[in-house]
Specification:
The protein is α+β, with helices and mostly antiparallel strands. The chain is built from 12 helices and 18 strands. The chain has helices spanning about 20-25, 60-65, 70-75, 95-100, 115-130, 185-200, 230-235, 255-260, 265-285, 300-305, 310, 330-345; strands spanning about 5, 10-15, 30-35, 35-40, 45-50, 50-55, 80-90, 135-145, 150, 165, 170-175, 180, 200-205, 205-210, 215-225, 240-250, 315-325, 345-350. Strands 2, 6, 7, 8, 9, 12, 15, 16 and 17 form a 9-stranded mixed beta sheet that branches. Strands 3-4-5 form a 3-stranded antiparallel beta sheet, with helices on one face. A two-stranded antiparallel sheet has the order 1-18. A hairpin with a 2-residue loop joins β4 (about 35-40) and β5. α3 crosses α5. The protein starts with a strand and ends with a strand. The structure holds adenosine-5'-diphosphate and magnesium ion. It comes from Pycnonotus jocosus. One of its GO terms (cellular component) is microtubule.
Length: about 350
């Protein structure tokens, strides 16, 4: 508590897809063990280090256990603001890592072994809350940032844009966002599904179900106060603690040329790229030592405003960088690896 803590950055390399294998793409990303990963291709030869590296054979469970996700859930229950975000090129496996293949087929439920970090965290959260026997109130909110507008994915009816405000006590926050209480795994999974179906996706060349928005699902964990004596309240003490666990599925970085986007799609791509650029800029400034830091331009995008606390404030953050092993994705993969390495130097004060 209060001590400078580094962002935890892990890397996941997905298997080659059928299309990539059929095309005869070479694998250029290899795990060396101990958190090291090697990229080898003509004119490029580099090694990067992370807190953990998961290669093509890693199961969803291995990623949950090895990434530190379980500890993050426990910290959220202890009252900290925790965030996990998936970052990487379109089609690199971000949504798969967070939600599993379930997000992509609405007819067949995914097999339990394939469930992603989110469902595993929900299970862990509900189990813990039962075993601790404390009176915890759980609620969820789910937002997307689409073309620099914030939309509530849980409120019924046509999407409308919500204002983003700032206050001294709360920092940046979204006004009027819906927060839905839940007590069971079925309830939270169904909120996740409903919300995900409202997300803006569109098909383009790299990924049939590409997410065109950044999505943030936040679980609020509040311990209910046990009717404190009135003098406690009068003294201004806060008898309950509140933690959060936020899952961020970033829309992929992409080149308009590679994905064949045009018209409305390229407007989307530009807003996505602009906010990812702003995020990259904040991360490289935050990676400098505290004394030498310039002003951090969180206000450059809605995404960076919403992530301000996770990146530079009092949050605890896990970043899961996702890459494809294919030679065809080499330049995007290298840029994700550089970006993720830089993020390892970012610190917060939980
Ligand atoms: P993103 O969200 O980064 O755009 P997706 O998560 O949608 O990418 O993944 C792209 C494709 O690759 C999907 O068809 C997904 O099922 C598949 N995929 C991604 N990661 C894995 C993995 N670890 N194992 C098997 N298939 C994967
Ligand atoms: Mg996705």
């Amino acid at each position: 508590e209060g001590r400078e803590t580094r962002l935890r950055v892990v890397l996941r390399v997905r298997p080659l897809t059928c299309t990539e294998t059929r095309r005869g793409d070479q694998r250029v990303v290899h795990s060396l063990g101990d958190g090291a990963v090697h990229v080898s291709a003509a004119r490029h030869d580099a090694t990067f280090g992370f807190s953990a590296v998961f290669d093509a054979g890693a199961s969803q469970e291995a990623v949950f256990e090895g990434s530190g996700m379980r500890q993050l859930v426990e910290l959220a229950m202890d009252g900290f603001s925790c965030t996990v975000f998936a970052f990487g090129q379109t089609g690199s496996g971000k949504t798969y890592t967070l939600m599993g293949p379930l997000a992509q087929s609405d007819t067949q439920p995914a097999s339990p072994a394939l469930l992603g970090l989110m469902q595993r965290s929900f299970t862990c959260l509900l189990e813990q809350s039962r075993s601790r026997g404390s009176d915890l109130a759980l609620s969820a909110s789910y937002l997307e940032i689409y073309n620099e507008q914030i939309r509530d994915l849980l409120s019924p009816g046509p999407p409308c844009s919500l204002p983003l405000r700032w206050s001294k006590t709360r920092g940046f926050y979204v006004e009027n966002q819906l927060s839905v209480e839940f007590e069971s795994l079925e309830a939270i999974v169904s909120l996740l599904l409903q919300g995900s179906q409202r997300r803006r996706t569109s098909a383009h060349a790299l990924n049939r179900h590409s997410s065109r928005s950044h999505a943030l699902l936040t679980i609020h964990v509040r311990s209910r106060a046990h009717h404190p004596p009135t003098w406690v309240l009068q003294a201004g003490a806060c008898p309950s603690k509140q933690g959060t666990l936020c899952f961020v599925d970033l829309a992929g970085s992409e080149r308009v040329k590679e994905t064949g986007s045009s018209g409305e799609l390229s407007l989307e791509a530009n807003s996505i790229n602009r906010s990812l650029l702003a995020l990259g800029h904040c991360i490289s400034l935050l990676a400098k030592p505290r004394g030498k830091r310039a002003h951090i331009p969180y206000r450059d995008s809605k995404l960076t405003r919403l992530l301000a606390r996770s990146l530079g404030g009092s949050g605890i953050t896990l970043m899961v960088a996702c890459v494809s092993p294919s030679s065809r994705c080499l330049s995007e993969t290298l840029s994700t690896l550089h970006y993720a390495s830089r993020a390892r130097r970012v610190t917060t004060r939980p």
